Amino acid sequence: MLKRINVPVLSIQSLSRAYATISPPPPKICGSPGGPPITAPRIKLRDGRYLAYKEYGMPREDAKHKIIFVHGFTSSRHDAVVAKTLSPEFIQELGVYVVGFDKPGYGESDPHPNRTVKSLALDIEELGDQLGLGSKFYVIGNSMGGQAIWGCLKYIPSRLAGAVLMAPVINYWWPSFPANLSREAYYQQPVGDQWALRVAHYAPWLTYWWNTQKFFPSSSVIARNPDIFSAQDLKIMKNKLSTDPEKEKSKHYAKQQGEFESLHRSMMIGFGNWEFDPMDLKNPFPNNDGSVHLWQGDEDRLVPVTLQRYIADKLPWINYHELAGAGHLFPNADGMGEVILKQLLTGET
């Protein structure tokens, strides 16, 4: 009798331990007991969530050009790189205002367990409305932030004055990619990243466990493996980013509510099954009253240049700028922010 009872009990205990291992801990919500403090200005979204933001450049009421910046994978509202590299003279001359925000689950923005590419685009629209940025504003996304720009081009194109994608991270499972081209680019990644993205796409419920276990190789981006950076990237990291007092602080700040609702959920969304294919998008500015730009380094080890070239060929209305010798961190290079903004805002090459 005891043996017959012990078998199902042990099975239940084993399943419980397994479930606890693969289940992420609950997030530490900013402002909640035991959670990080609230230090940023925030807006309350229509669904009750809070979104934290940070303003750069001119006062928004005086600015001629108003820009919403979307940060990358391990970043936050403190990393609006194009804004941080602008000279005061450039800001005044062009009348530039930039607002960066913490994506849901990052920094001091509430997590959104049902976050999608569409929901983030609608968050961006609501941020623009609550800050009074007008009927149209510019959007710029860096790295994983570029995926949010595809969402804006799909879901809120009428609100855009222009858009920039800087080294936008590719979803290898977009259906329009030729299988051989996507497969070749995919296998250029470190083995750990191949597995991490495969898990995020095919078994998202295992994403937390995969990126926290120690038995198999996981995301080299989360681990900050130096092998994923080009020669130019390493130079920029040594000469610029290592001297930025906010940079190291921002990496910890970005995931202070927990890695799952920030980094891991971004992986699940970014490399999951999208509800649209960016290759099917139409030109949001058929009357040339705005422009879309994609900037890419040809030595980027995180984002394959071959797939960006394919995108530029399929969507000829995108102004494609390929930078020789540049890696993934080129937006941090001296003068790059002004070059990108001048092209977007004035059309000057």
UniProtKB/TrEMBL annotation:
Output this protein's name.
AB hydrolase-1 domain-containing protein
Q: What is the lineage of its organism?
A: Eukaryota, Viridiplantae, Streptophyta, Embryophyta, Tracheophyta
| Alphabetical list of InterPro entries matching this protein | AB_hydrolase_1, AB_hydrolase_fold
Give a single Pfam family match.
Abhydrolase_1
Residue stretches making up the AB hydrolase-1 domain: 67-329
Name the species this protein comes from. Answer: Cannabis sativa
